[in-house]
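Q: I'm teaching a short session on how sequence maps to structure, and I want students to see two examples side by side rather than one. Could you give me a first protein with its sequence written out and its structure tokens following it? Keep the formatting plain so it prints cleanly on a handout.
A: Of course. Example one:
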Amino acid sequence: MTGNTQPSHRNISRSRWSMVTQHAIAAPQDPRSALVELCMHYWYPVYAYVRRCGHAPDIAQDIARGFLQNLFVHFRDDAAALAQARFRAYLLACLNAFLADDWRRTPDGEMASELRHAPNNLELRYQRDNIQAQSPEAAYQRSFALEMLSRATHRLRAEARQTGHLPMYEALHKFLAVEPLAGQYEELARELGRRPLALVVALKRLRQRLRELIGEELADTVSSHDELDAEMKVLHSILREQAR
């Protein structure tokens, strides 16, 4: 997905990451749920990093679960790390520190209920997205971007279903990041009983809405609009590299 994405209209000061960074000390109970939600959203890049380090799938899953549990328990211990404005960078720094330590130790505290069941298809996604990744960090960065894109795309599809436009979405979603070939608009128009121009307009709207949803997902991982702009540039760079 390329092109300029406008910053989300979401209030950055109320993003999940802002809740964590601003209230970790002042409100001991409030930020934990926000951090749990963020980590559950981005379990996949953690798994991809650990897999690219050479661990087998089952071991990588256990390490990812142990790391996230450790993060939930100890995230207030490092004020300097929490001061980082970007969740993506914070998560990777914490993961590196965890792996450099004795990660075989049982994490402290009761296991968070959200961690008892890992997301589905992590290994399948890893094999598809990162089997040729040159380094663990490359696998992490790519997986983080793809997870964000996946979350936004799922929201876009749900909106199409809710508004009664699911057939149009299903016909056009494969063109969200690439241009249709000559004649494809006409072919789809015949299948859907629509005019080709209507499909052109619909695809333009879908792309714009996807950019907005990506902005909203990304906004949840930063604590300022400046950081949102910077992260958007990083995301575009990673996705362009993925498309090559």
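Q: Perfect. Now a second example for contrast.
A: Example two:
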Amino acid sequence: VMHNHHFNSAEQLAAYLGLVPIERQSGTSLLGRARLSKNGPARLRAVLYMAAMVGIKHNPHVKALYERLLVKGKSKMSALGAAMRKLVHLCFGVLKTQKKYQAEYQNA
């Protein structure tokens, strides 16, 4: 629960925080890049931005995602937005399961 909101999934929390990409599809200008929706509390997004900056250097999950997106040709800023979203997903998982974060955890 965050500010009297209850989230059933990490996707719902990420959407509340404004970390979902929105594509511009207006009229003939379909060539615009996707951007973060930026709905929700800007202060939390600013904190997540700094956390993502540290995460791309020190967290193996976030670093791998960031580097994979750069190799695919994404801009550094969009890859950083994805890193912010990844941190939200990791935090949601830790809070939901009430288990300690495991950096070496792999989906089987």
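Q: What should students look for in example two?
A: Point them to this: The chain has one domain: 10-97. Also worth mentioning: The mean pLDDT is 81.
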